[in-house]
From TrEMBL:
<dbReference type="InterPro" id="IPR005218">
    <property type="entry name" value="Diacylglycerol/lipid_kinase"/>
</dbReference>
<keyword id="KW-0067">ATP-binding</keyword>
<keyword id="KW-0444">Lipid biosynthesis</keyword>
<dbReference type="InterPro" id="IPR016064">
    <property type="entry name" value="NAD/diacylglycerol_kinase_sf"/>
</dbReference>
<keyword id="KW-0594">Phospholipid biosynthesis</keyword>
<dbReference type="Pfam" id="PF00781">
    <property type="entry name" value="DAGK_cat"/>
</dbReference>
<keyword id="KW-0460">Magnesium</keyword>
<keyword id="KW-0418">Kinase</keyword>
<keyword id="KW-1208">Phospholipid metabolism</keyword>
<keyword id="KW-0443">Lipid metabolism</keyword>
<keyword id="KW-0479">Metal-binding</keyword>
<dbReference type="InterPro" id="IPR001206">
    <property type="entry name" value="Diacylglycerol_kinase_cat_dom"/>
</dbReference>
<feature type="domain" description="DAGKc">
    <location>
        <begin position="1"/>
        <end position="134"/>
    </location>
</feature>
<dbReference type="GO" id="GO:0004143">
    <property type="term" value="F:ATP-dependent diacylglycerol kinase activity"/>
</dbReference>
<dbReference type="InterPro" id="IPR050187">
    <property type="entry name" value="Lipid_Phosphate_FormReg"/>
</dbReference>
<dbReference type="Pfam" id="PF19279">
    <property type="entry name" value="YegS_C"/>
</dbReference>
<keyword id="KW-0547">Nucleotide-binding</keyword>
């Protein structure tokens, strides 16, 4: 690897914050003595191709500038390689950064932290989830939450947490629990009526919803949060607790821990890091220490 650092930029993240954030992050890295080049890409496929070329070419680090979508794209390039990942979190949700205790909407601070890590500071080995060839860092969502995610992603206004609150209210109108088959570690199968099943490598999704509040990114295991067959009234009461993680104590909520999870249910789409994976059934595996993250801290809490 070289002292050249690659900024992997989404110029549209956070209503243009991605483009504005690249400059102070780059300045912080250059002030620390690193050379910086920027990768944009014509679209997601082109951007990923360019990021992979940078990794294969020996870049000293790949630093994603944007939101969780950009981090997800970067993970596809660096997972399983010795190239560390930096995060300048300026998107809408920023759940990957929140989980790992990284700066949020502070591009200069994030750039400085990445530079310090490259000069001998903390570089943490972080677990990732994998579905087929697709890597994810936070949560695989399915059921009610994936429907909320789908609706929220289509909404142009508002931004942040409020977007998902409004999407949730809209989805309640057609809400109905569905039959799931959940298979843990090649044998422990559960047939349940569930409102949602979330497979957490990280703790949160949707801009701070702590659906898998107890998840750790250093134990080689997912936290699998199963919200059972709630009524609409119960769901309305319980769902706001997700922001504090206190929903885990509700009698309709069960948490399992496993390194491998297969989810099967009809008519349900899986999302990971806010990106669609496709229809269930899907099998997710937790890969221990799959990526090195610059400056990650407090992720064991």
């Amino acid at each position: 690897m070289t002292s050249e650092i690659t900024l992997f930029v989404n110029p549209t993240a956070g209503r243009g914050r991605g483009a504005h954030a690249a400059q102070p992050a780059a300045s912080a890295l250059r002030s620390a003595g690193f050379s910086v080049r920027t990768v944009l890409g014509q679209d997601a496929d082109d951007a990923l191709r360019r990021a992979r070329e940078a990794v294969e070419g020996g870049t000293g680090a790949l630093i994603a500038v944007g939101g969780d979508g950009m981090v997800s794209l970067a993970l596809q390039a660096v997972a399983g390689t010795p190239t560390p990942l930096g995060v300048v979190a300026v998107g809408t949700g920023n759940d990957f950064a929140r989980t790992l205790g990284l700066p949020v909407r502070d591009p200069a601070g994030a750039g400085t932290l990445a530079a310090e890590a490259l000069k001998g500071g903390r570089i943490a080995d972080v677990d990732l989830g994998r579905v087929g060839e697709k890597w994810f860092g936070t949560v695989l969502a399915s059921g009610f939450d994936s429907r909320v995610n789908d609706r929220g992603n289509r909404m142009r206004w508002p931004s942040g947490r409020l977007k998902y609150d409004l999407a949730m209210v809209a989805e309640l109108a057609s809400f109905k629990p569905v039959p799931y088959r959940i298979t843990l570690d090649d044998g422990d199968a559960h047939e349940v009526e569930a409102t949602l099943v979330a497979v957490g490598n990280g703790t949160s999704y949707g801009g701070g919803m702590r659906i898998c509040a107890g998840a750790r990114t250093d134990d080689g295991l997912f936290d699998v949060t199963v919200v059972g067959d709630c009524s609409r009234t119960t769901l309305i009461k319980v769902f706001p607790q997700v922001y504090r993680g206190t929903h885990l104590g509700h009698p309709k909520v069960t948490v399992h821990r496993a390194a491998k999870v297969e989810l099967a249910a009809r008519g349900i789409t899986g999302y990971a890091d806010g990106e669609p994976l496709g229809a269930l059934p899907l099998t997710a595996e937790c890969v221990r220490g799959a990526v090195k993250v610059l400056g990650a801290r407090d992720f064991q809490a």
